[in-house]
Specification:
Layout: E1 2-9, E2 18-25, H1 30-38, E3 49-54, H2 57-69
Antiparallel strand pairs: 1-2, 1-3
Length: 82
């Protein structure tokens, strides 16, 4: 099943969060909670998942394209030392 999940993203200050929208393929909705525990930049508490909604395959594809444009989700540290 395809889902649109909204998580509380961290690293933006104490007591604050950034809404992170991720598009996932899961077997059941409880699997979203397990993914949230392991996902980087997500608050690591029981309130990490704000919402979770079933979506169509077309909406999933559009969402994955939008994810690639989100600068918060696509930052990487340069591990190479020059």
């Amino acid at each position: 099943m395809h889902v649109k999940a909204v998580f509380r993203g961290g690293h933006v200050g104490t007591g604050r969060y950034h809404d992170m929208t991720k598009y996932l393929v899961v077997r059941n909705l409880l699997e979203v909670l397990d993914i949230a525990k392991k996902m980087p930049r997500v608050k690591k508490n029981h309130l990490a998942v704000i919402s979770c909604k079933l979506i169509s395959k077309q909406e999933y594809r559009r969402g994955k394209k939008a994810e690639k444009l989100d600068p918060y989700l696509n930052t990487r540290k340069n591990k190479r030392k020059g």
